[in-house]
Amino acid sequence: MKIEQAEREYDYYCLYKKWIHAVPIYYVPTKENLKYMLSLFSDYKISDEKRIDVWSKKSGQLFALYYLKYHLGGRFDYDYRYTDDQLRIALEKLKNEDLNSLPYDLERLELYNSLMTEWISFYVRDHSVAITFIDRDLNFYLEKMSQAQKIDPRDIWPQYWAAYFLTEKAISSDKKEDYKEALNEWEKLFENDLFYASPVIKLAYQKMFVCLEKTGNTEKALIYQQKEKDINTVLDIDFEYYQYFGW
């Protein structure tokens, strides 16, 4: 990096006496952040981009919808089983409310997000060189997700990644018992109402379809295949190109 480039980079960082872990703004429910999430919907709808990246407008909107539901619960009456008109109504209602900051614990959020990101470099490294899952790696990932879930059992991402990792293991081993174990974890995820406001709902149904088909439950697999088709088409995302890590 050239010196002049490095100098410009300093505009984007704060230096602290001790190491801290960054917390995405979506997790911090200040009045300003809640209003920022709502501001991403100036026309009360989700962008129709099909191929997105982390910086795209649609990516920000999908995160915002999930975290508005995460923070506000029933005050934001929307998930991806609803219509575009229902989304507009839900957003209009929130924009007309006098939203205030909600309580949060920054130290807890730092710890939670450190657990949720610690495994990513290992996961990306392994997959970039086509290393198949081994028990040591899987146990490391699952232990981090278990610790994170104890801190925040409401957020879907620890359970989502536990189910995802176990599905990867099943695909690698092609053992029926491994698919059954993964299937059980997906079922736990589906019990969380936040899942239905998440951007990974279609991908999760695809994984559920695979697990059910591999365990011989073709009839139930077809039900989940139809469930995926019934979800709002704004989530027709190319997941081979773009993966959600949860923030």
Q: How would you describe what is shown here?
A:
- Residues 1-13 have low confidence and may be disordered.
- The protein has helices at residues 3-9, 31-39, 57-72, 84-95, 106-118, 120-128, 135-151, 157-173, 176-190, 201-214, 218-230.
- Helices cover 57% and strands 0% of the residues.
- With 247 residues, it is an all-alpha fold.
- The chain is built from 11 helices and no strands.
- The relative contact order is 0.12.
- Helix 5 runs antiparallel to helix 7 (135-151) and helix 8 runs antiparallel to helix 9.
| Beta-strand content estimate | under 5%
Helix percent reads: 55-70%
- The counted number of beta strands is 0
Low-confidence stretches: 1-13
Rg over alpha carbons: 19 Å
Order of helices and strands: HHHHHHHHHHH
Question: What general outline do the C-alpha atoms trace?
Answer: globular
- The DSSP helix count reads 11
Q: What's the layout of helices and strands?
A:
Elements: H1 3-9, H2 31-39, H3 57-72, H4 84-95, H5 106-118, H6 120-128, H7 135-151, H8 157-173, H9 176-190, H10 201-214, H11 218-230
Helix pairs in contact: 5-7, 7-8, 8-9, 9-10, 10-11
Question: Which descriptors apply to this entry?
Answer:
disordered N terminus; mainly alpha; 247 residues; single chain
Question: Can you summarize this structure?
Answer:
The chain has 247 residues and is an all-alpha fold. It has eleven helices and no strands.
